[in-house]
Specification:
Layout (H helix, E strand, L loop, with lengths): L16 E3 L6 E3 L3 E3 L13 H6 L11 E3 L8 E4 L7 E2 L18
Antiparallel strand pairs: 1-2, 2-3, 4-5, 5-6
Length: 106
Amino acid sequence: MRKNDGNIKCCKNCIKGIHVGIRNEILCREKGIVSPDFCCSRFMGFEPETLQKHLGYRCSDCIHFTFMPDLRNSNYGVCSMFSVRKVDGSEKKACSKFKKKGKRSA
């Protein structure tokens, strides 16, 4: 019995690969044209948690981000995981520890 194709670590299951349609080859953003069974060190699977980080979420959408509004910008705050310096949470991309929080209350 074979494993589920979605769980196998190879280029055909990587978010950086695009199916070319010629001999089942994959166009990888990192390595170029590769075999569908090839796997490099930059593999990124189709896991919901991994994809969520790359969908455009920002620090201000994370549960670890604490808002400390400024007069000019209401999105200023600090990340309780990594920093004590105030940053604009709407401009910084989500990090590897990102966990989406519920809706922001006013």
